Amino acid sequence: MSVLEIIIALPLLAALAVWLGAPARAASLGATFVNLALVLYASVQYAAKPAGLAFTNARVVLENPAISFAVGADGVSLTLALLTSLVMLAAVWQIEDRPNIFYISSLLIGGGAMGAFLTTDVFFIYAFHELALIPTFLMIALHGRADAAQRKAVAWKATIYLGAGSLVLLAGLAWVVLEFSGGSKLTFDLEALRNQAQLTPLPVAKQAQIFFVLLLGFGTLVSLFPFHSWAAPAYATAPTPVAMLHSGVLKKFGLYGLIRIALPLLPQGAQVEWVQNALLLMLLGNILVMGLVTIHANRLDDTLANSSVMHMGYIFLGLAAGTEIALKGAVLLMFAHGVSIALLFGLCGRMRNQLGTLEYNKLGGLATHAPAFTVLFAFGAFASIGLPGLANFAGEVMVFAGSFTEFKAGELSNLHWTVILALWGVVMSAVYMLRAYRNIFHGSANTGLFMTDPVFSQRLPFILLAATLLVTGCCPWLLLNLMKSAL
Amino acid sequence: MHASIILLLPFFSALLILLGHRQLKGASVLISLGSSIISFIACLFFLAADDDNRLLLPFIEVGTFNAGIDALIDKQSRGMMFIVSFVGMLVHIFSLGYMKDDEAKPRFFGSLSLFMFSMTGIVLAGNLFMMFIFWELVGLSSYLLIGHWYQKASAAEACKKAFLTNRIGDFGFMIGILLLFGANGGNVNLIDLETAFTSGPLRPDAPGYSAGFTTAAALCIFLGAVGKSAQFPLHVWLPDAMEGPTPVSALIHAATMVAAGVYMLVRVSFLVTASPLAAEIIAGIGCGTALLAALMATQQNDIKRVLAYSTLSQLGYMVMAVGAVAMAAQHGHQGAHAADPGHPAMFHLYTHAFFKAMLFLGSGAVIYACHHEQDIWKMGGLRKHMPVTFWTFAIGTAALMGVPFLSGFWSKEAVLGAAYDSGCKVLFLAGAATAALTAFYMTRLLIVAFFGKPRTDSAHHATEAPMVMILPLAILSIFSVLSGYDVLAAPLQAMKPPHVEGHQTVLFASLAALILGAGAAIYLYRGKDKDPISIKLFANKFYFDEIYTVIVRVCQDGLAWIVTALERVFVDGIVARLPAAIIARLGAATRMLQGGHLQGYTFLLGGGVIAVVYLVVFVLPRLGH
After folding, report:
1. pTM for the complete prediction?
2. Contact B605 A389 (CB under 8 A)
């Protein structure tokens, strides 16, 4: 029995208990609290261990093909588990006066994500992600923030996109399993596949092909341009905890998959020129096109949803660079983005509940009556535009620096030019975030709308996320030490 | 030890006020004030600290990427640290009076502490990443303080504009840092970079040397200074920043933060010296800013705006000096790198900090006394009502104009001397013209606001400001007089350049400029009740704001509109809707889904999982063999 199995099972069991009639809030909060404590405990334990997988345990499910429920964690998966437990706790905590299905779905999404991050068998990695997606769609369709026809259309669109993406991903994973199983029987064990990939690497051209298929599959799940258009409406429509969990946590699954499966098995795939160029173009689409789209948005939920698509570009940039610095920066950025966007979506949900609208031209001057809320929002907003001292900056600067380690004076490669253009995206982020901040909190509302601060107990989940941003931003080495030489 | 105290004390002060301002109430003012006083005392000890370069706090350390919070202690940082903590402390004291009735005092003092923390970080920064971190953080504190009265639309717009304009500068700064990071094997420690450029792999005669690279890196880094020090073409944010409370204008937008660009440029002067083209561009931009801003200042009527344009102009002076010193060094003049390190730009920064902070605080006292009236044509006759403010303001004005034997005289002569030595006549002439214009607009300000008769009731009933506000003025006026002499400049490590003999031309030019400018202003403005001259182009700041508004509208918002439309048509229409439409037409099974039945989604996903299991258990094993 590994501690990771408890971490995965706890939210799922809590969801079951709530479904069977246990007190929803107490059970959910208790389970997520304990979960966070367990993840922290595991991280502290891991920090003292040598690099590599820890807390491993495997239960054989099928002999041939070899599938087992195998768990194991290294610094990268623990970082994401930490993200999951933090956001899950905050998402569950901030639920107020909602039916039990809100708790159940949050726990299922969180538990599914936890499973995807902490298992080491490709079959279960995939299956856990699908498990987490189902409640996401259902919640958008059932409890989305729009009239019935529109929210169903949004849920349907996300289903088609993510379904198609998952199918492409499935094909890619099947290809990987076929290529690297070696020996007589197929195996889904990631460690075995990795060992095989190291023993007999594939020809570079073939690596590139498989990598590209995986990139498209995983990329769609992360809203890689141009397969992103499901994301913005889905986040803008999703109920608050679902938006927090999906944009903050579950979306990182695609990136995690690329780092955990595609890069180690196909180490040269991403560096082959055509794959590299395609990836750079797509991520520039995320940053520049979506940056402009976000500038054009005139509702807060639209701004946040599109900005979340845009910021994925920076994480992809880290993957494209592929150096140790850039990859660790990408993981740090995944964590930071997850926390900051969950914070922003959580606050955005409260605003919608209190005000009934998120349109900029109807808002203004909210800071006067809701100072604490304003400060919390500022943490999220400034984190997401990469202010030093908050978590996202450390990740971004590592991605940028990691892309410049191969620089010779006077020779700029495509990667370097992409970094320079991506840096302009940082300016665009500041433009839309500060516009939003100015329109919502500064000045005065021409419609007279105002809101008040949440009571203290309802501030706590947001304070938890804001404090995480500050601590990680000032001491990024806490997480970097955890990652060790995992990449 | 001292360095960490000076750095972290204001940080904890800001954090404490942020967390507990409701409980602390008035105590938050004392916390902020106390931390600034203790920092100042620590800085006095710090003046005697040994040269050093060491890690204070870890930040990021992965492979070759090592960006710690370290302290580079040398003459430049010791001197700058004194300026920051000294002016900072006086501004804290002044604010006790000026912000007495403000409801959001804790927020104001918390932001001031945050600023002191960030500015200290810039001064101590031993590597460029650390410089960038605190560079952005001073931007944040400036944003918070300009927007202190955020309910006012003008303040809300001004703080946004300041932050965004600085972001454009930071865009270049970061590119510059990355270029140096890549070219120097991941090491952006300032001392190591200097070694690399003077005797290491990046020196001009090294194999693989690229002049284009050096120029590009220097200009990118310079863009950061253009933003922070409000140089043309990114100067537009500074005048608007006067929407903040006046003590903030004195500390941040006159004495310290805006000078950070100059401080940073002097820190990387090896880079500027390495590229002749970059040095010329930097000197040119500085010179242009100095002249343009001085022209704009001649037609402003808001007391703080006159001072703001004057700050722009003086910052231009300093930037010009950085370029000019590098140009002179390229021609073989030793000035910047003599045994005793001095630099005209840093020297002018140092004297300017005292007299400009005093002028701003003086204007604050005037505004406070006139019940928040800022138009100089609605003042007049304040000389009799506010004698202490008047005399200190007059001393500051004289120092800024470069009246002989006051601090500004020495530093201005050093800057003009550098321009003269650069060998570029245009720089020198434009510098002298700026000096004349400076004398003109400052004399105009003094005459209109303080002489003549009170022109409104509020000016008539003005009374002298309270003690907490006068005391900082008096202290600063002493510094405005004496700081140019070695008696202060030496212990305060002011980087005063060694006196150069044989600069009669410079001396003559600066005296002529002074007499010309001040004389013209006295002739034109004595006894006048409204402005006898009106030059629309200057009063409207050469229409930069209007031009930039159009550029932002067309280039950014217009482009955003077009891209959004294209994204909707192509990506959403073709990548998303077309396949959806095709699937929707495929048959009855999918019609159920489109009808919106919940089972639809579950069916699709459940079907997907079954397909996966089928694939895994039955299909893949066969393919494998």
Report:
1. 0.92
2. no
